[in-house]
């Protein structure tokens, strides 16, 4: 597992590298935004661990520029800023996950490994969110290994949410992507579908979160 650490605090970077190497990662290090962007575009990494406060260009700029160039390497952002607005902005810019500083190395390891598994799975048409798995080839959902049954509309909405995991989807965006469904779909119908999905997914392991004024986001629950 090859990781690019992008952090300008040399003391923190040294600590992270030491701990991540002990946990089986091969760690490369960049201490400014411009060199990080160059390395990601010219080399192959399984995951990027990205700080926001970087010299030359900021971490947010690095993230935006990489995604605009079609780079799909998973990115975990390290930040001390964790308001809802900032979280949504990071997700919209293409971040796959984020952690607040100070970091807990055990949690960081688990999150990095999950991002790598998810990325490799998507290359095979397999999308995951915690124990929820969607196999694109068979078009089946499983939760904790158990098959789930959905109506065509429910299946279509949940498929969009898991395929766009980390990217909030508004009601209109969901409607725009369901052009092949019945013409009577409207924003209120989307609310009903999401309500039914929440009941079928149960409480705890998986949540469809409502970001007020933004849309819906699929994420692991506290009990996952």
- The total strand number stands at 11
Calculate Rg over CA atoms.
18 Å
Low-confidence stretches: none
Main sheet record = 5 strands, parallel
Strand content: 15-25%
Summarize the structure.
The protein has helices at 10-22, 33-42, 59-68, 84-92, 105-123, 152-163, 171-177, 187-201; strands at residues 2-6, 26-30, 47-51, 75-79, 97-100, 126-129, 132-135, 140-143, 146-147, 206-211, 215-220. The chain is an alpha/beta fold.
Describe what you observe in this structure:
This protein is α/β, with parallel strands linked by helices. Strands 2-1-3-4-5 form a 5-stranded parallel β-sheet, with helices on both faces. The chain has helices at 10-22, 33-42, 59-68, 84-92, 105-123, 152-163, 171-177, 187-201, and strands at residues 2-6, 26-30, 47-51, 75-79, 97-100, 126-129, 132-135, 140-143, 146-147, 206-211, 215-220. Helix 2 (33-42) runs parallel beside helix 3 (59-68) and helix 6 (152-163) crosses helix 8. The mean pLDDT is 87.
